[in-house]
Specification:
The structure holds two protein chains of two kinds. By secondary structure, chain A is α/β, with parallel strands linked by helices. Chain A contains ten helices and twelve strands. Chain B folds into two domains: 27 residues; 267 residues, MetI-like (MetI-like fold, Orthogonal Bundle), CATH 1.10.3720.10. Classes of the chains: A alpha/beta, B mainly alpha. Chains A and B meet through helix 3 of A and helix 2, helix 9 and helix 10 of B.
Chain lengths: 346, 306
């Protein structure tokens, strides 16, 4: 068995909330609350969930753009959370992120050339003709013409801006690319194009993707493994095809049923969840989904946090419904932390 | 022949690389030109700069700048020989007002640059570092801002002793807190931008982020504020001169000229009027230009309190 490229274990990120300066009790926004998963080389892992479920916070904590409160992030075996600033900087060559909003992730005062060349100057000290040639190559890789090189971001279209962001991320030959909603800010017509492009890029450059999206179709199309997040926690994880064709957790069921289906003959009744996602400052007791769950089995849902139940097909679910049906292995008694899932080689 | 070709290709490459920049500048200028008030401001400021530049060559009585005395010529009304008349000791007012332009430009520039030199680094430091550094810098800034500027300047000059240099020192001390406020607010906003996070994720150091990402995005508000402050600084310096703690006679400074001329009103009106007009035109010019620049460079801040 090969080691996973990225291994996240019990990752937590609590943002302290300052109330008043006389109030002693501190409250926290529990943006990420005990998340574990791992990604194998060359695979794509998808994180889905509503907005506010903590997907982006996971990404930022992995890159250590914010300090994780607790937990372990291992990249090629190195613990990122316990590395020094210079080690982190070295590691950042291997891990790059593509941001949700292509516009605001580019400095409006810099030309495309300057944006793409920045990492090359910082890490490889390239200058002059060499730098120029490398930037030209990168722009070609992402499908931009050399005439775009000295344009400002505001002169480019959304898709082109996203490509500039990708070129910047690729400039250091990373192994892991974190894609934070890479298509949500783009026109529908450009979205499919961008997904195909990302897929071919992965094949050509042997990249590993962490794909973050609220769009189930996108995740299903691009990812091998998927984790469904709700209020800072992964509540179901497994092979993307299986999770989406046979969802187990009530929340996943609701999500999947909410995806519009083009065929009119199939009058599948969509499950409508009541109410909004609760605030991350006051996470419900017991199962965090119990306030909106339509398959609640009783008091146990409100009192005890469900453990992680693993299935023979490699899926895992955090729900009391599966106490009896699931494989009763060690992880079942692990107390919520769960065993990191590893996908089978394909 | 050969060098001609390579020069042409270098020129072409230069042009290609800066095409977007040039287009942006052209657009800025075009938008500025469309607003009549900005054009007036630009013209007045241009006139002011021109007069400051060619002053020594267009004055008629160079000796009068230094304080020559021609008692026989005293208090003459405007005429062909003395365009703006003469003052109480017979000096040519036209020459003195023209040379005052150069002095005002000097005063304005020095005050603004010193204020920027202190204010911008402190503002970036406060905004980017946050925490107690931010609190410390901002509270000190607040203390300075809570005292009316002219009053504080007056107190400082009072302590240092009158004179043009001390007036500039005092005004610089009064002026920098405004820049701290402006830049700190801008830096705070920029710090949360995704492109700063993007820079961090490619491993950019703090210094690099400050100099190559935050500072360039602060230039527009700095330019706008500087052009507005230029007029105000000149006005404040003239105020100090008028009160008698700024430039000392016979230095041809507009404020002190008005102060002297005031004693001879209304019979000898030209002594106070022409320096006064010079101040009016200059301050108006810089304010109109500043307003115009703000509309073009920094449209979001329109209508905000400066």
């Amino acid at each position: 068995m090969m080691d996973p490229l990225l291994h996240v274990k019990n990752l937590k990120k609590y943002f302290p909330l300052r109330k008043g300066f006389l109030e002693k009790e501190k409250t926290y926004v529990r943006a990420v609350d005990d998340v574990s998963f791992s990604i194998r080389r060359g695979n794509s892992f998808g994180l889905v969930g509503e907005s506010g479920s903590g997907k982006t916070t996971v990404a930022r904590a992995i890159l250590r753009l914010i300090e994780p409160t607790e937990g372990e992030v291992r990249f090629e075996g190195m613990d990122i959370c316990r590395s020094s600033e210079s080690e982190i900087n070295e590691m950042r060559r291997e891990m790059q992120i593509i941001f949700q909003d292509p516009h605001s992730s580019l400095n409006p005062r810099k030309t495309v050339f300057k944006i793409v060349s920045e990492p090359l100057i910082i890490h490889e000290g390239l200058r002059g003709k060499k730098l120029r040639r490398r930037v030209e190559e990168l722009l070609e890789t992402v499908g931009l013409k050399s005439e775009h090189m000295f344009r400002y971001p505001h002169e480019l279209s959304g898709g082109q801006k996203q490509r500039v962001g990708i070129a910047r991320a690729l400039s250091l030959n990373p192994k892991l690319l974190i894609l934070d909603e890479p298509t949500s800010a783009l026109d529908v017509s450009v979205q499919a194009q961008m997904l195909n492009f990302l897929e071919s890029l992965q094949r050509e450059l042997d990249l590993t993707y962490l794909f973050i999206s609220h769009n189930l179709a996108v995740i299903r199309y691009t990812c091998d493994t998927v984790g469904v997040m709700y209020l800072g926690k992964i509540i179901e994880m497994g092979e993307a095809e299986k999770v989406f064709s046979m969802p187990r957790h009530p929340y996943t069921k609701a999500l999947v049923s909410a995806v519009p289906i083009p065929q009119a003959e199939q009058p599948e009744t969509a499950i409508l969840l009541e109410g909004d996602i609760p605030s991350a400052t006051h996470i419900p007791s017991g199962c965090r989904f119990h306030t909106r769950c339509f398959e609640k089995i009783g008091a146990v849902c409100e009192e005890r946090e469900p453990e992680t139940y693993c299935f023979p097909d490699g899926s895992q679910v955090n729900c009391h419904l599966f106490k009896s049906t699931a494989l009763d292995d060690e992880a079942g008694h692990g107390g919520g932390s769960g065993k990191p899932l590893e996908t089978k080689d394909r | 022949m050969h060098s001609g070709i390579s020069m042409a290709s270098t020129w072409n490459r230069w042009k290609k690389e800066r095409e977007s920049q040039i287009r942006d500048l052209a657009l800025t200028f075009y938008t500025l030109r469309r607003s009549p008030l900005s054009v007036i401001g630009l013209t007045l400021v241009g006139l002011f700069l021109l007069v400051a530049l060619i002053g020594p060559w267009i004055i008629t009585h160079p000796g009068d700048i230094k304080g020559a005395v021609h008692i026989d010529q005293k208090l003459k009304p405007p005429s062909r020989a003395h365009l703006f008349g003469t003052d109480e000791v017979g000096r040519d007012m036209y020459s003195r007002v023209v040379m005052g332009t150069r002095l005002s430009l000097q005063i304005g520039l020095i005050i603004i640059f010193v204020a920027m030199g202190i204010g911008v680094p402190l503002g970036i430091l406060a905004g980017y570092t946050g925490g107690w550094v931010n609190h410390l810098i901002m509270r000190i800034t607040d203390i300075f801002l809570s005292v009316p500027g002219l009053l504080l300047a007056l107190a400082i000059v009072g302590a240092l002793g009158p004179g043009i240099k001390n007036a500039m020192v005092a005004l610089s001390i009064v002026w920098w807190p405004g820049y701290v406020r402006l830049i700190q607010a801008k830096t705070l906003a920029l710090r949360e931008e995704a492109f700063i996070e993007a820079a961090r994720s490619v491993g950019a150091s703090k210094l690099r982020i400050i100099f190559s990402h935050i500072l360039p995005n602060c230039t527009s508000p700095i330019i706008v504020k500087a052009s507005m402050d230029m007029g105000m600084a000149i006005l404040f310096a003239a105020n100090l001169g008028f009160i008698g703690v700024g430039a000392q006679p016979p230095v041809p400074e507009w404020g002190s000229m008005i102060s002297t001329g005031r004693n001879y009103l209304p019979d000898f009106w030209w002594m106070a009027t022409f320096p006064g007009l010079a101040i009016l035109v200059t301050v108006l010019g810089f304010n109109l230009l500043g307003d115009g620049l703000r509309d073009v460079l920094d449209p979001q801040s329109r209508g905000q309190i400066r």
